[in-house]
Amino acid sequence: MENLIRENLSINIKVIDLLNDQIKMEAKASATYLAMASWCDQHGYDHSAKFFYAQSSEEREHMLKIFKYINDNGGMAYSPTVEGVSHDYESILDLYKTALQEEIKVSKSIQNIFLTCRKEKDVASELFLQWFVNEQQEEEQKMRHAVKIYDLHGEDVENLYAIDKRIAGV
Ligand code: FEO
Fold first, then answer.
1. How far is the CA of 82 from the centre of ligand 1 (A)?
2. Which CATH number do you get for residue 12?
3. Is there an atom of ligand 1 within 6 Å of 27 CB?
4. What's the domain range around 163?
5. Ligand 1 pocket, 139 CB below 6 A?
6. Global confidence as pTM
7. 26 touches ligand 1 (CB under 6 Å)
8. For the purposes of burial, counting CB atoms within 10 Å of the CB of 149, is it exposed (0-12), middle (13-18) or buried (19 or more)?
9. If you take atom 1 of ligand 1, which residue's CA is the nearest one?
C-alpha cells in the first residue's frame, strides 16, 4: 500500500527524500543558532544574541514550511532529531564564520534539491524551492557582512561591542 501511495504522488519520490534530509538541516540550523544566541548572551553581545534568537525561529519556520509541503502533497515528513550542536566558539568572529559556513552548506543543499527537481521534471517542487534559493542568498549575505566587519575592525575590545550594535542591532 505504501508503494502504491508513493507511486501516485504529485511530487517526485527522490525529491521527497531530499526534502526530508533538508528538514534535518533546517532543524540543525535552528538549534545551532539557539546555541549561538546563548553564547552571545553569555559574552555580552546583546544585539547578536537577539539576532540569533530571531534566526533560530526563522530556521524553524523554514523547516515547518518544508514539513507541511511534503505532507500536503501526499508524502510523509519525518520529525528530525538534532545532534552535535556546538556551544563553543573561540570568539564572536569564529561564531559568525561558523554561521556563514553553515549557511553555505544549506545553500548548496537547496541548490542540489532544486537541480534534482529539474532533472526529475518535478515542476511544483522546483517552484516551491525558488523561495528558499532567494532566502539563502539573503542569509548568506547577512553572515558574510558580519564576518567582514568583525574581521576588519574587531581587533580591539571596544570595537567588538560597537560592531555588535552596528551589525546586529536591528
Ligand atoms: Fe533555512 Fe538558512 O537555512
1. 15
2. 1.20.1260.10
3. no
4. 2-167
5. yes
6. 0.90
7. yes
8. middle
9. 59
Q: For the residues of 119-136, what is the DSSP string, one character each?
A: HTT-HHHHHHHHHHHHHH
What distance in Å separates the CA atoms of residue 47 and residue 167, rounded to the nearest whole number? 8
CA distance to 8, 16, 33, 40, 109, per residue, from 73 (Å) = 10, 10, 30, 39, 21
Q: How many domains does the chain have?
A: 1
Cα–Cα distance measured from residue 146 to residue 9, given in angstroms and rounded to the nearest whole number: 42
Distance 52 CA to ligand 1 centre (A): 12
Q: Is the CB of 126 under 6 A from ligand 1?
A: no
- Helices 123-153 and 46-72 cross at an angle (nearest 10°) of 170
The string of pLDDT tens digits covering residues 59-88 is 999 999 999 999 999 999 999 999 999 999
What's residue 163's pLDDT? 82
Determine if ligand 1 sits within 6 Å of the CB of residue 122.
no
